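FAQ: What does the model actually see?

It sees only this:
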Amino acid sequence: MKLNMNRNNTRGILLIFNRIKKIGHNFINWLYPKKCVFCQKELKDNEADCCEICYNKIEKISDTYCTKCGKKHEVDEELCFDCKRMEHVFTNGRGMYVYEGVIKKSLFGLKFFKHTWIGHKYGKLLAKFYMENQLWEVDLVIPVPLHKGRYIERGYNQAEIITKAFCKEKLLPYNTKILRRIKATTPQKDLTDINRQKNMIKAFKVTDKSVINNKKILLIDDIYTTGATIDGCAKVLLECGADKIYFLTIAIGKGL
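And it is asked to produce this:
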């Protein structure tokens, strides 16, 4: 009899706990409603990370893409136009989406309007993309760094936010201090392809070679366009003893 009473008490406590938990969850959703990662509109109950409208608009990169940089292209060839005319020092890379439309708009908000919650969402989506595509085995994840002046001005590094969320999902080690941007480079979007390459010369520095020695490194950034930034990071990492350099980005320009 006493045993049954104890069981009933336990069930009652669990029932009360679950009700309180549900009320708390509903209150948090009311206070901080879930938003679409792309357009920032409030999501419906049956929508997870993005609304149905944006889901039908975004262009995912899943079939025809460059085997080197991951750019989506229409022709049945291994390399895109950019990778045919330009030799990259990284091993391989992939991007989740084509850099246009609502993707472009959401990344602009993350980068310049302090929409940091988008970075956390994107990190989780990137981890899912990484697992679904069974991508490379790596030893260490490194976000593409900002220069100290840019970091102070912005208040955060969007690549770092994405990296931390990605590694939390994938249980991979990351290091935000090992690679530093020591040159205050001109924003890449304002430069030609050739000047983008020149802009990245001696822009990065490894702070401790022993941490990356013989390691397979995964670089994470928000956008890939010509590859100049990734190459700049990869070059110095390889020179300091890293084995291979891969990269993942949220978005990537469309190849030819």
